[in-house]
Write a structure and sequence with these properties.
MetI-like fold, mainly alpha, flat
Length: 321
Amino acid sequence: MEQSKFRVIGKNTEKMESISRPSLTYWKDAWRRMKGNRIAFFSLILIVLYIILAVVGPYMNEFDYTSTNVDKMNYFITSPQFKDMELIESIKDMFQTGHYFGTDEIGRDLWTRVWMGARVSLAIGFIATIINTIVGSIVGGISGYYGGRVDSIIMRIVDVLYGIPYMIVAILIMVVLGAGVTSLIIALVLVGWIGSARFVRGEVLKLKEQEFVEAAKVLGVKDRTIIAKHIIPNIMGLIITNLTMAVPRAIFAEAFLSYIGLGIAPPGCSWGVLAKAGVKLMRIHPYQLFIPAFFISTTMLALNLIGDGMRDALDPKLRNE
């Protein structure tokens, strides 16, 4: 080749020594990768939107979730009073009256009831799951770290509880304690920590043989400090991912228990209570079932997608950038 076709570029020492990528902590890098997952990030925005609406939604019109109006029973765009109106006019009329989702069979506003129900369903799902994760992490951490007789005793108890169907235990507890938010949380917590305990135990068994744990033991660090400051932080990403995956299961369990009449007692409401009421009128007014079913389905789907995204973001082994 002709030498004239080439030119000497040289080198820029300052550019070579500059840091091309800013230094990021583990959590900042995980958040950056989470934002890069469009599906998971959109799901996160959706859940945040539901939480905001659960807080402010009931105050966006003048109706109380227990107040009835016999003049507007089963009020929706598919109702007979709208048969002579165009769709756009029907929707405008609903929004002008403040019944954005219509009303139920006794004239209660569904918009207010849906978001009051969201408060209950989301609160039970998150509170029960957080308590389960904390209890399971403590029990699993102690079992996996100490091993031997301690591990055998704890795991035999866990195996016995694990062999009993989770929902059967929850139903029995609800029968004894009665309906209510507190009873639901207790029912979901009493046996819900087992999965977290087994998961954390398995991770601790792998980590306790690592060099940094052995070094801490040699230096005389107390066992509880090793568990709290060395082992748990190293599996915190996996614990958070597991927690995110467990929330939709708790929400579904609450919806199911409320659906069969063992959850929230009237006049209170949750998404399960609304779905139960909607089933009775599914043939005549299907919107009363489809609206709560939509929010239950999208919430569970979004939380599962967030869990998948957090697993990819928090696990360094899955990093491909």
